[in-house]
Each structure stands twice: as C-alpha cells, then as structure tokens.
Design brief:
single chain, mainly beta, five-stranded mixed sheet, about 10% helix, about 35% strand, globular
C-alpha cells in the first residue's frame, strides 16, 4: 500500500514518538490549490490535554486524538483531490469524544459519500462505539475504489443534539509490488520465513 492521505485536524506536519508506524500527519489547515476544499461552514477546531486511550488496531498517536474538528452546524464536508486516482484504496477515520457533553446531549452522525450509499448505512455514536469518552474508535473500509475528486461528509442524525466530530483520517492507495523491485524480494522472503502460531 502507498500512503496517499493522512489528515489530522489541528497540527501541521508532524511525527509522533508514540506512533508505532512512524507516520507523518498533516493538518487539514494546510491548503494547496485544488487539494482540500469545500470545508463546511460551522467547522470548528477543538482540542484537549486529557489522555486518550489509543491502544487499538491502527494506534493513532495520542496527540493526534487530542485534536478534532466538530461540525457546529450539523455537518463536516470535505473534498480531496487524490493524485494518482481513481484507484483501489483503504481508508480509516479516527474518532474520540473529547468534549464533555451534558447528560442530555448526544453526538450521532453518518458518513455520506456521493455515489456510495452503502457507506452511509452505519450510524456513528463515538462514545458508545469507543465504549466511553476519551477513547479511540476507528472504523474503516479496506476495499474501496475512490475517484480523483473525493467528496465526503459527516451529517448528524435527527436524534443527535451535537454535530459530528472527526479527529483524523487516513487514505492508502493499493499499489502492486513487482518481483523486480527490492521490496518484492523482501516481502517474498519475509512471508516464506514467517509462521503463525
């Protein structure tokens, strides 16, 4: 896989020592022509200094999860121009409830991707899905075909009192590794010598 896009929603470019995958995270505030546009009105940046439990699959760094954007008007919209697409891809969103909601407040929302209605079916309730506040929840899709211009959004549900929250996202483009590359030889060697017990 080739890393195509990794966004967090406060810092600029940054590496974190607690990131087991040594990723470079880029802020959505970095603007390039025709790259990250169509940000929804009412999008607000928030952050916390409280610890976030991140010990799950992709292990996003805690500092990444301590920042987020929220859709105060009920939605978060983005459009990414993905260089080298259309292509098969893998994508994951990172959520953590980092606001202290009142007992009568709820935050539920759905992903909306034009032309891909199947992605919009699940409802995200971060606090419920992550089993508490200040905990990472990371839903994703491992087999997507994404266009060059990728538009997506998160919309609050009718029974939600708060707009959506998004801490970070990653998009990877699947690339074929040929046996003529040094990477291909290493992968074949590694898979031949690695066993599962």
């Amino acid at each position: 896989m080739q890393t195509h896009d990794r966004r967090l929603f406060l810092f600029l470019f940054h590496r974190y020592p607690d990131d087991p995958f040594d990723r470079i995270w880029e802020s959505d505030s970095v603007r390039r022509a025709n790259y990250l546009v169509d940000v929804a009105p009412g999008t607000e940046r928030i952050s916390t200094t409280k610890p976030i439990f991140v010990g799950t699959n992709e292990e996003a760094p805690e500092k990444v999860m301590q920042t987020a954007v929220v859709g105060q008007d009920g939605s978060l919209n983005y459009r990414l121009d993905l260089e080298g697409f259309p292509a098969n891809a893998w994508g994951v969103s990172y959520f953590a409830e980092i606001e202290d909601l009142a007992p009568n407040e709820t935050r539920k929302f759905k992903l909306e991707v034009p032309g891909m209605p199947a992605l919009s079916k699940p409802t995200v309730d971060v606090e419920e899905n992550a089993q508490g506040k200040y905990r990472l929840y990371e839903p994703g899709y491992t087999n997507l075909t994404l266009p060059f211009v990728f538009s997506f959004g998160f919309r609050k549900t009718n029974d939600s009192s708060k707009g959506p929250i998004l801490n970070a996202l990653e998009i990877y483009k699947y690339v074929q590794i040929t046996m003529g590359s040094q990477d291909g030889k290493q992968i074949v060697h590694g898979s031949a010598t690695f066993t599962f017990s």
